[in-house]
Automatic annotation (TrEMBL):
UniProt keyword terms in alphabetical order: Pyridoxal phosphate
N6-(pyridoxal phosphate)lysine modified-residue sites: K195
Gene Ontology annotations of biological process type: polysaccharide biosynthetic process
Gene3D superfamilies, sorted: Aspartate Aminotransferase, domain 1 (3.90.1150.10), Type I PLP-dependent aspartate aminotransferase-like (Major domain) (3.40.640.10)
Family: Belongs to the DegT/DnrJ/EryC1 family.
Source organism of this protein record: Flavobacterium defluvii
InterPro entries: DegT/StrS_aminotransferase (IPR000653), PseC (IPR020026), PyrdxlP-dep_Trfase (IPR015424), PyrdxlP-dep_Trfase_major (IPR015421), PyrdxlP-dep_Trfase_small (IPR015422)
UniProt-annotated catalytic positions: K195
SUPFAM superfamilies: PLP-dependent transferases
Keyword Acetylation: no
Tree of life domain: Bacteria
MF (Gene Ontology): pyridoxal phosphate binding; transaminase activity
Name of protein: UDP-4-amino-4,6-dideoxy-N-acetyl-beta-L-altrosamine transaminase
């Protein structure tokens, strides 16, 4: 036990994963082959969305996501400060402004009330969209956000990078998977190795809108399409209809994604078992992310709050437990401080959360023995600090 590093998250690559990647490497296609289509179809099925568009990473997915929803220079969006910077940066890529609303102190998610307050403090049409984040794997109540968004004519782009397999039951008791496109206009997932499904790099954009889907396809691949080819044109015909990018994933990454996706449901179950153990150990002693009724947290992270956060972080690292902090509030990052944001909005809950948060090891291959070691060390830290 002594020398083994326990990270906060890690990928799991099986022999079968390796086999399918090698098989694809030896096939006719390294990119734009059949594995991408298969990955998209299987992913869409897994989250119950109509469409899925695979991309080279979630940051690219967020970029073409906001573009497909029509975001333009000078427009304004609202997001949470407690997220990875890319959730906000995607708006900056098109020259739009990022406004932050505070979090709910119990769920750590973008607060519906604070978002509503911010929207209603401005004239109609001031904001164009909301980018809520299923932070740590806990689904945002998108039914409630949809209602708010509809009242003000806003779109919703769900950053579901932490939450493939997460869901909530809506007011009609229907199971709503993160990224299913029912309440949000589109959603984005990441296949970075620390996330649930590892492709090396990779991402997916899901939507139920035909129009958004078509735009995503164009933007992913240079704005080029063969769709308008008529009978008298040669086979080489194509049109560039808009300024797009090369945000494609490779076929061998998609093969890895398919193999990983097949294990995700089990992985989410395992993550929830690990969460249960932490909760049992900490209940009544240590604050952790709350779980509303009828929500399933996909648990990319397991976050606890501790007064002497640096003390616990250092102590765990000394014991080779590489706990991590998620996240430094985005509005406090030097880039956002410099360009400015809605400085007069109260973001104190996000700042208070940040001063205490620490993410404990959470991944399906974390063994019971390793988790007990982590729990013991945390208990020891607390008893030494009383
Ligand atoms: C990981 C992550 C991203 C970016 O994903 P990449 O695939 O690394 O580009 C965006 N948003 C959130 C919330 C993330 O956790």
């Amino acid at each position: 036990m002594e020398n083994k590093i326990i990270p906060y998250g890690r990928q799991d690559i099986t022999d079968e994963d390796v086999r399918v990647v090698i098989e694809t490497l030896k096939s006719d296609f390294l990119t734009q082959g059949p594995k991408i289509k298969e990955f998209e179809e299987k992913f869409a099925k897994s989250v119950n969305s109509k469409y899925a568009v695979a991309v080279n990473n979630a940051t690219a997915g967020l970029h073409i996501g906001v573009m497909a929803l029509g975001l333009q220079e000078g427009d304004r969006v609202i997001t949470t400060p407690i997220t990875f910077a890319a959730s906000a940066n995607c708006a900056r890529f098109v020259g739009a402004e990022v406004w932050f609303a505070d979090i709910d102190r119990d769920t750590y998610l973008l607060s519906l009330e604070k978002t509503k307050e911010l929207i209603e403090s401005k004239p109609k049409g001031f904001f164009k969209g909301i980018i809520p984040v299923d932070f740590a794997g806990l689904p945002v109540d998108l039914e409630a956000f949809r209602k708010l968004a509809d009242e003000h004519g806003l779109w919703i782009l769900e950053d579901a990078c932490h939450a493939p397999g997460g869901y909530f039951m809506d007011s009609k008791n229907q199971k709503q998977f993160c990224g299913n496109g029912v309440y949000a206009d589109a959603a984005v997932f990441s296949f970075h190795p620390v996330k649930h499904i590892a492709c090396g790099e990779g991402g997916m954009v899901t939507t139920n809108s035909d129009e958004v889907y078509k735009k995503l396809l164009l933007l992913r691949s240079h704005g080029i399409t063969k769709d308008n080819m008529s009978e008298n044109q040669g086979g080489w015909f194509y049109e560039m209809q808009t300024l797009g990018y090369n945000y494609r994933i490779t076929d061998f990454q998609a093969a890895l994604g398919i193999s990983q996706l097949a294990r995700n449901e089990k992985g989410v179950e395992k993550r929830n078992e690990i969460a249960q153990k932490y909760k049992k150990a900490f209940e009544g002693k240590i604050t952790f992310q709350s779980l509303p009724d009828k929500f399933l947290n996909a648990h990319h992270l397991f976050v606890i709050e501790v007064e002497d956060r640096k003390g616990l972080y250092d102590y765990l690292h000394q014991n080779k437990i590489y706990a991590q902090i998620h996240y430094i509030p985005v509005h406090q990052l030097p880039y956002y401080r410099e360009i400015g944001y809605n400085n007069d909005t109260d973001l104190s809950k996000a700042e208070d959360y940040y001063s205490k948060c620490i993410s404990l090891p959470m991944y399906p291959t974390l063994t019971a023995e390793e988790q007990e070691f982590v729990i013991d060390k945390i208990n020891l830290f607390y008893s030494n600090n009383l």
